[in-house]
Design goal:
Elements (H helix, E strand, L loop, with lengths): L1 H26 L10 E16 L4 E18 L2 E12 L4 E13 L4 E9 L20 H5 L17 E12 L5 E9 L14 E9 L8 E16 L8 E19 L2 E15 L15 E12 L2 E11 L9 E11 L9 E11 L6 E10 L1
Antiparallel strand pairs: 1-2, 1-16, 2-3, 3-4, 4-5, 5-6, 6-7, 7-8, 8-9, 9-10, 10-11, 11-12, 12-13, 13-14, 14-15, 15-16
Length: 375
């Protein structure tokens, strides 16, 4: 029922905008140019090779991502997007899934509404497209907390940073040149491609403050994110009751500094901390008691030439900050990146070396090489 209400609200807003645009078009003088709808297809491909440096070295070659879809506009203030991924990890083999699809309606130059299935606005570590990541793998807190805020159960596997809902986004530039912005989303809380089988909405959002552009000093952005929702599991064997709600909360703070020259990135420093309380357990275990995962990362990258960069990151993750058990994960990553056709083309080769210090997982150190093609 709740998503029906969201859909009706968004439909009314969109149709109202369409009616206003139609009336304005009728008042326009004859011979004036009309809007031509657009359709811009894209294809993203990422192939990765991994070498685990354990007692016995293990090497693998895999298709990490094969995403295709399109962006476009049907009116000046109404745009659309859809994207499939043909390399989703399934139980026995790779699967194709509809990863994103949404409509965006521009209420004004500063405010927009988005309805559909897409990334919820929590944190900054993985909110940009993977085509802009400096590392092959996300930080532990992004993969261990942000990705799974809407994970339903162990059988469905980890989440995808996405859900179905309605988002309001707005920004405003102050007289001093500073810019404030926010995004708030009400969503199902079930993850992608799932029925709406619970009775409550999940809420997630992020607010940010950005500095004005200063020649030679770069720009910075500080932000904070929140998530508030509930997990409903019906008839799960690990839960005593047939339908029990499990509260989930998460909070994060982030910082990013960028230096650009001639519209090309020169250096970046980024840090983020996330903490949560959830009764959903870890990736593969549903528990009937709360746990408090949390952690942080700090990373930086520097371009030694317009097309070559080096990057370093340190991140920590604790599966439950309320216990003193051996459940923490530490990792140091050194990376090298090369844009063979320039930064703006986004085709990229990444080489990462990850040194792990995992107290419970015993993960081997790893060398990974990823080739990303963007069309």
């Amino acid at each position: 029922m709740k998503i029906v209400q969201l859909t009706l609200l968004a439909s009314v807003l969109v149709l109202s905008g369409a009616v206003l645009q139609s009336v304005e078009g009728q008042d326009a003088p004859q011979g004036s140019s009309s809007f031509d709808p657009t359709f811009n297809p894209f294809f993203w491909l990422q192939i990765e090779s991994q070498l685990d440096l354990g007692d016995e070295d293990e090497q693998s070659l895999m298709l990490q991502k094969a995403r295709f879809g399109a962006n476009g506009k049907v009116a000046e203030d109404l745009s659309y997007h859809f994207m499939f991924d043909g390399a989703i990890s399934g139980a026995d083999e790779r699967e194709t899934k509809l990863l994103q699809t949404f409509l965006r309606y521009s209420v004004s130059d500063r405010t927009s509404l988005r309805l559909g299935q897409f990334k919820y606005p929590f944190g900054i570590g993985t909110y940009p497209s993977f085509s802009k990541w400096d590392f092959n793998h996300p930080a532990f807190i992004n993969g261990g907390i942000a990705r799974d805020l809407v994970r339903r159960d162990a059988g469905t596997g980890p989440g995808f940073f996405r859900d179905f809902g309605l988002e309001v986004a707005s920004s405003r530039q102050l007289g001093s040149g500073y810019k404030i912005g926010y995004k708030v989303m009400a969503m199902n809380g079930n993850g992608i491609l799932k029925n709406d089988d619970n009775n409550s909405l999940d809420f997630v959002g992020r607010a940010s403050l950005s500095s004005p552009k200063q020649g030679g000093f770069g720009t910075w952005t500080v932000g904070t994110s929140f998530y508030r929702g509930s997990l409903h599991l019906e008839g799960d064997p690990s839960i005593d009751t047939d339908d029990e709600a499990h509260d989930e909360d998460a909070w994060g703070v982030d910082f990013r500094w960028d230096l650009h020259e001639d519209n090309l990135r020169v250096a970046t420093v980024q840090a983020e901390m996330i903490t949560a309380t959830t009764e959903a357990g870890s990736h593969d275990i549903i528990t009937d008691g709360p746990v408090s995962p949390g952690g942080f990362y700090v990373q930086g990258s520097y371009f030694t030439s317009p097309d070559v960069f080096w990057a370093v990151r340190y991140d920590e993750f604790d599966h439950d900050e309320d216990t003193d058990g051996l459940d923490s994960r530490d990792r140091s990553t050194v990376g090298f990146g090369y844009y063979p056709y320039g930064q703006k083309k986004l085709h990229r080769i990444n080489v990462n070396y990850e040194r792990h210090d995992d107290l419970d997982h015993g993960t081997d150190d790893q060398i990974s090489v990823a080739v990303t093609l963007i069309f």
